[in-house]
Amino acid sequence: MTIRVAVIGAAGRMGSTVCQAVQAASGMELVARLDAGDEISPTTLAGAQVAVDFTVPAVTESNVHALIDAGVDVVVGTTGWTKDSYGRVRTHLASPEAAGRSVLIAPNFALSAVLSMRFAALAAPYFESVEVIELHHPAKVDAPSGTATATAAAIAAARQQAGRDSSPDATETDPQGTRGGLVDGVRVHAVRLSGLTAHEEVLLGNPGEQLTIRTDCFDRVSFMPGVLLAVRKIGEREGLTVGLDQILDL
Ligand SMILES: NC(=O)C1=CN([C@@H]2O[C@H](COP(=O)(O)OP(=O)(O)OC[C@H]3O[C@@H](n4cnc5c(N)ncnc54)[C@H](O)[C@@H]3O)[C@@H](O)[C@H]2O)C=CC1
Ligand SMILES: O=C(O)C1=N[C@H](C(=O)O)C[C@H](O)C1
């Protein structure tokens, strides 16, 4: 059976790549391309069963609520989600009008990034120190990246569960904030550099040893297998799913 797909943010870097991937995928049909200024409604969605949102952090949540109201399942790659905004989507999906609808939100659809996050959480309790460095193209509007935020959260949860203290750090003065930001107690550093696409390094240190976990996405095609898998699987799920790992059964 063919899955009819709408892409929201279709004129963007990711949205346009998703349009190409859907058009090339077997068993999928691209029925709508929406971007800024287009209304989200059953008419503009043109019979889509699944909508894929790659827009901007400022609008993605309201898009998702409008898409649920329009009666489609939603796959979201846009960043900027918080525990509160997840909670509002969960509440919406639990309402009788949204019965049977599903939403999958993933900060990263690349297999190397999803596995990196999992490996980082696995390793985090075994090292005294851990810091995250995310590196992206300079057109990216948000920092830290959604992937780094999720990585830090997973590291923090794993360390807390293991009773591991925060990383040692004797810094007393840092007026320029050069030690980076704290996400769930984990230091995160954001680099923006021409030539880069999407990269992340997790540095883990013990006396006399270091483990580096690194993912490099050189091209946006790296995200497409994960996006297409989510489009295929979303209909089998109900409610809110956060993270591609949930449908990879990692
Ligand atoms: N989950 C993942 O694997 C990945 C996530 N991303 C995230 O996806 C998002 C988009 O990234 P890019 O494509 O690089 O950005 P982009 O800036 O190239 O594209 C965003 C598009 O959204 C459109 N847009 C803005 N407001 C809109 C609205 N109200 N309705 C519909 N469209 C609207 C813009 O006009 C633009 O065409 C970012 O949050 C980025 O961090 C990016 C790469 C991979
Ligand atoms: O803006 C990007 O490009 C990316 N955004 C996502 C993020 O913020 O984690 C995913 C990937 O890193 C590319």
Automatic annotation (TrEMBL):
Q: Give the residues annotated as active site.
A: 136, 140
Q: Which residues form the Dihydrodipicolinate reductase C-terminal domain?
A: 113-248
The reactions it catalyses are: (S)-2,3,4,5-tetrahydrodipicolinate + NAD(+) + H2O = (2S,4S)-4-hydroxy-2,3,4,5-tetrahydrodipicolinate + NADH + H(+); (S)-2,3,4,5-tetrahydrodipicolinate + NADP(+) + H2O = (2S,4S)-4-hydroxy-2,3,4,5-tetrahydrodipicolinate + NADPH + H(+)
What are the binding positions for NAD(+) in this chain? 9-14, 77-79, 106-109
Where the record annotates domain Dihydrodipicolinate reductase N-terminal, the positions are 3-109
Q: Where in the cell is it found?
A: Cytoplasm
Q: Which residues cross the membrane?
A: none
Q: Record's Gene Ontology CC terms?
A: cytosol
Which annotated residues bind (S)-2,3,4,5-tetrahydrodipicolinate?
137, 146-147
Print the keywords alphabetically: Amino-acid biosynthesis, Cytoplasm, Diaminopimelate biosynthesis, Lysine biosynthesis, NAD, NADP, Oxidoreductase
Query: Tell me, how does this one assemble?
Result: Homotetramer.
**Known function:** Catalyzes the conversion of 4-hydroxy-tetrahydrodipicolinate (HTPA) to tetrahydrodipicolinate.
This protein's name: 4-hydroxy-tetrahydrodipicolinate reductase
